[in-house]
Design brief:
Oxidized Rhodanese, domain 1, five-stranded parallel β-sheet, 2 domains, 54% helix
């Protein structure tokens, strides 16, 4: 008999095991438990057909059509599950823990596997994620103007044993208008929340959590309001780096990027950058003069960053100066500065 597990036990016991999501490919693509594999009972078209039949002719007719569709696929389901599971254990779910997961669990149990089914299905996981966002953390925001290398410093802090969440990595976007270059943001809001939700719950509320200073919107997704409010209320440790060093860092980061993509990103901010500055930046990019392009764009981003800091209370912001672009050195500087102030 399949064993039904509530969400927390399901996630704990499946941590080193694959999770099989038996919903349709479109449902799976929209949002899923991070790391899950799609083992769809029905294709998108088949799911729509069975659903329509259920509404028009009732449950019995829909069930018969479902059996007709699934029958030829049964061996494939078993082979896929056995190929990807370990210890003959299978963790699976559908949308609400209903007939799709029950049917798949019956088949896989019959084939000699032991199944654990998520109570309440993916819907219960989504509720678990949303409820987790209300957990309060001891947040410190790592700030600094464009070019200070905040993300790299954040990753170095993790190497030093500090707890971090890299929001840009979870969002598959670097945050600015240039943040999606060579990193197409193929993620939905729901799946971003799922990734963030699991990362958020793993952080001990008694431990310090470092987050990078971000706008609420990161590319096409946004930080959930419950977390965003904590970020706005948290202290900011802003790295102060001379403009010439920041420009040097940006040249190292963007010099190898596709010039056409850089021009498209520049055109996307034309309304805020201004016509003349946009024209000059595009001309510099056409000439291959990245140094000049950075010199034009840097004051634009500095202005917006400064505006964001002004909105915070004076005692929220601490400044720490640096004269190096080395992220590892700056991580030690930031960490030591913070703990010395406490």
């Amino acid at each position: 008999m399949p064993q039904v597990l509530p969400i927390e036990k399901f996630l704990q016991q499946s941590e080193a095991q694959p999770i099989f999501d038996v919903r349709s490919p479109a449902e799976f693509q929209h949002g899923r438990i991070p790391g899950a594999k799609n083992l769809p009972l029905f294709s998108d078209e088949e799911r729509a057909e069975v659903g329509t039949l259920y509404k028009r002719k009732g449950r019995e007719q829909a069930m018969l059509r479902g059996l007709e569709i699934v029958g030829p696929k049964m061996m494939g389901f078993v082979e896929f599950a056995k190929e990807h599971c370990s210890n003959r254990q299978v963790f699976l779910h559908c949308w609400r823990g209903g007939q799709r997961s029950e049917s798949m669990a019956w088949l896989l149990e019959f084939s000699g596997l032991h199944c654990f089914v998520l109570e309440g299905g993916y819907k219960s996981f989504r509720r678990f994620v949303r409820e987790g966002f209300t957990q309060e953390k001891q947040i410190v925001i790592l700030g600094g103007m464009t070019g200070t290398g905040k993300t790299e410093i954040l990753l170095e802090l993790a190497k030093l044993g500090e707890k971090i969440i890299d929001l840009e990595d979870l969002a598959i976007h670097k945050g600015s208008a240039f943040g999606g270059i060579e990193r197409p943001q193929d993620i939905t809001q729901e799946h971003f929340e799922n990734r963030l939700g699991l990362a958020w719950r793993k952080i001990d509320p008694q431990k310090l959590l470092w987050l990078e200073d971000e706008s609420q919107r990161i590319g096409n997704v946004h930080v959930p309001m419950e977390i965003w409010q904590q970020m706005k209320a948290g202290p900011v440790l802003a790295v102060e780096m001379p403009a010439d060093l920041r420009q040097k860092r940006l040249l190292l980061e963007y010099a190898e990027l596709n010039p056409d993509e850089l021009k498209k990103a520049t055109q996307r901010i034309e309304r805020r950058l201004g016509g003349l500055a946009t024209k000059q930046t595009l001309e510099a990019l056409d000439a291959g003069d990245m140094e000049q392009a950075c010199a034009i764009l840097l004051p634009y981003y500095d202005k917006f960053y400064t505006r964001g800091l002004v909105r915070r209370e004076d005692d929220q912001v601490l400044q720490v100066g640096t004269n190096t672009i080395d992220a590892a050195e700056n991580a030690v500087l930031v960490r030591d500065f913070w703990y010395a102030k406490k």
